[in-house]
Amino acid sequence: MLKNAQRATATVGSTTHERIKHDIIFGLLAPGAKLKLSALKEHYGASVSILRETLNSLASEGFVIAEEQRGFFVAPVSREDIEEIANLRVLLEGHALKLSIERGDADWEGHLVAAHHKLHLMEVRMQAGDVSIRETWKRRDWEFHQALIQACDSKNLLALHSIIFDKYLRYQMLVLTFRGDEAAIEHKAILDAALSRDSATAQNILETHILAGLRHALMAF
Q: What is the distance in angstroms between the CA of the first residue and the CA of the last residue of the chain?
């Protein structure tokens, strides 16, 4: 009975963490907003103890600010922050991509092709002006970039990249940046280079892709 209760508490905590993080990334919880435990308890249906644990965890990831005597706040945003995040993503994802291309097998290639196909379908709809699927579009984008680096064989690298990617995504969602054809062409070029096992070309295009996205976001910031 005790183990079942502990398992249930852990599940609620994990779900609450993902829901609050999602709402921060997609702008439902605005930058700088105070996170009042009473309101969060009512909205997310979690206990105060779970909420405190969740917010402290999100603070360690950089999505929440914990201030002594003042409580918890959604992390603020700035031009300097997104520039740093983009540059970190270039370093982490570029290195992971190189390792993944060197180590990936046929299953990795198949998963990568499938992930790109799903992303391309969403890109076509976004290009047609269907912004209602923006969350699905970004989920497919995340899945494609994850598929690119999945064979790097480093849990720590993947975990760090996941946090940085989510921070980068948060900025994109705040300004709803979509570069249209340009980004879609870059994705296809990265795919082709990865499948050709040309890590240098893939890394160069990836860097161009990330920094172009940064410039596009800054123009709308």
A: 51
